[in-house]
Each structure stands twice: as structure tokens, then as C-alpha cells.
Amino acid sequence: MTKRPIIGIPCTHSRDEWGGLSLGNSQTYIRAIEHAGGVPLLLPTSENREVLDGLYGVIDGLLLAGGVDIHPDAYGHAPHPKLGSNNLEQDSAEVYLTKRAAADGKPILGICRGHQMLNVALGGTLFQDIPAEIAGSLDHSFSANLKDGTVLAHEIQIGEDSWLAETLEQTIIQTNSMHHQSVRDVAPSLRVVGTTADGVVEVIESTGTNFAVGIQSHPEE
Residues 178, 144: contact at Cβ < 8 Å? Predict the structure, then answer.
């Protein structure tokens, strides 16, 4: 029997009904990994590198999920007035895990915040608020404002020579949209393979032979 690969999903923080801090992530990621043949494993964030190393040693691949804004400390910029809620511990843990996975050639898939994190961890930067920083931009919070991840907001044009176009067998797709930050300067080891009509970067992937793909929308929805 072929062993299912273990896919690590770093946790995000939330408050439970008693006001305590909880670690977890959306069930949609977990079910999608199960359906694709993997074993989802939630990875608690930690400031202890030995703990992160222990978690990293168990996984075969890394899924960077959606969530709060990435603080610009992670890429050396000053905070924008429109910066939303953030989590420095999560940022630090994900940067560390992403760098290790990229160096070792472990597969990485980034979704929404995770797409941005992939870029930041490998040396890129972000627009901290699309409406304030990109003139004439589309409404990239369209699906989020409706609180419905199944609502399709806009098209993405995908490069013909990309992994995503080959996998989907198409170069134009309709997606949901639930973000106000986006990729600005692309990390040296990544390339842009998908954009919207306003030029916002929606898909990135590795320039090398290792699997590293980021998509700004939420395909698991």
C-alpha cells in the first residue's frame, strides 16, 4: 500500500467561546488534502525552533493557508495605515518553515495569505492595501464582502507554459477573491504566471525544478 504524503498546514490563531487562544485552520483545506490523497497535519505555531524542526521533520509537503495580513516587518517595509490584523508569531514560523522546505525541495502550495507568504519568505515584498496602492484596481475583496467563498469575482489569465495551465488545461479561469494585499516585488526564485486584468499578481511558481506554487484565490472553496 502506497503511503499517503503528510501535508503540514501551519495553524492560525483565534479566540474560542471562552476567550482563550486557539490554534487551528479551516476544514476546507483539510478535506481538500484528504480528497487529493494526502494526510493533513495541523502545525502549531511556535517561537521555539526545535519544536518547528520537529514538526518539519514529519511532513512531506507544506500548505500555506489563508489568514490575516503579513506584517511588513517580514520584508523590511514600514506598516501602511491600511494594514489589517496580523500575527508576528505565525509570520515568523511560516517564514522559517517555507525557507526550509524551499531549500530541501519539499513541495509548497500557498493559498491567499500563503501565496503572499511564499513570496515574502523567499525574498519578495507585498502591496499592503490594493485599493490604496494600485490605481484602477478591481474589487479584490468581492467574495469576502459577500462572506461567500463560492462567489466568482473575476478572471485570471494564466501563462501557457505554467504548471497551473498544464494542470487545468486552460489559460483563463474564473476565481473567487478575498484579499486586500498582493505580491509586489517577486522573489528571485519565483516567477509570475497569472494576473488579473488590473495587473495584480494572482499566481506564482518556482523558476527551478522544485514544486512551489502560490495562488491568490481560494480553490479549496
Answer: yes
Distance (Å) of CA 199 to CA 77, 96, 138: 22, 29, 10
Q: Which residue(s) pair with 23 in the sheet? A: 13
**Residue showing cell 495580513:** 69
Q: List all residues 6 or more positions away from 201 whose beta carbon is below 8 Å from its beta carbon.
A: 182, 183, 186, 192, 194, 195, 216
DSSP code of residue 17: T
Q: What is the pTM of this model?
A: 0.96
- The rounded distance, in Å, linking the Cα atoms of 171 and 160 is 6
CA–CA separation, 22 and 167 (whole Å): 36
- How is the chain split among helix, strand and coil, in percent rounded to 5? 30, 25, 45
Q: Please answer whether residues 84 and 78 qualify as being in contact, where contact means their C-beta atoms are separated by less than 8 angstroms.
A: no
- 5-38: pLDDT as tens digits: 999 999 998 877 788 888 999 999 999 999 999 9
Active site residues: 112, 218, 220
Cα separations in angstroms, 203 against 127, 146, 213: 15, 23, 7
**∠171-176-178 over CA atoms, to 5°?**
130
71 is written with which cell numbers?
A: 506584517
